[in-house]
Design brief:
This protein has about 120 residues and is of the alpha+beta class. Helices cover about 15% and strands about 30% of the residues. The strands form two sheets. A four-stranded antiparallel sheet has the order 4-5-6-7, with no helix packed on it. Strand 6 and strand 7 form a beta hairpin. It contains one helix and seven strands; from the N terminus they run H-E-E-E-E-E-E-E. The protein has a domain of about 55 residues: SH3 type barrels, CATH 2.30.30. This is Integral membrane protein-like protein. It comes from Halorhodospira halophila (strain DSM 244 / SL1). Keywords: Signal.
């Protein structure tokens, strides 16, 4: 009898980690599925949309993506615009914030109007 209890105790010690490794079946998944076009999504290079231009007009700020104007809190390709700065845009994806500058190297830092378009002043 004593040998059977010892064997049962040893088996329970061996099986317990295997049972606990499965985790709580009611817990949410550890890795959330990604939407296409967002960082880490399957089949993409993880690029967020890049603004072509930012504009401040009449106390409001606008950002231009792919020829369309967006305002604060609107969504662009699944990413929400949380801030429009003078030289770039902050996008939020799954609670993470990403800064997307208009120009990576920071050369083009000047105010433009909506009439200037994407070509710059005087064009």
């Amino acid at each position: 009898m004593r040998g059977a209890l010892t064997t049962l105790a040893l088996l329970s010690l061996l099986v317990t980690p295997l049972v606990l490794a499965g985790g709580d079946p009611t817990a949410p998944p550890r890795v959330m599925p990604q939407a296409l076009g967002l960082p880490g999504a399957p089949g993409t290079e993880g690029e967020l949309p890049r603004p072509g231009m930012v504009l401040r007009e009449g106390g409001q700020r606008f950002a231009r993506f792919d020829g369309r104007w967006y305002r604060l809190n609107e969504e662009v390709e699944g990413a929400r615009i949380v801030r429009i700065g003078s030289y770039g845009v902050d996008l939020e994806v799954y609670g993470e914030r990403y800064y997307r500058p208009v120009v990576d190297h920071g050369v083009e830092k000047r105010m433009r109007t909506r009439q200037d378009g994407l070509g710059g002043k005087g064009k």
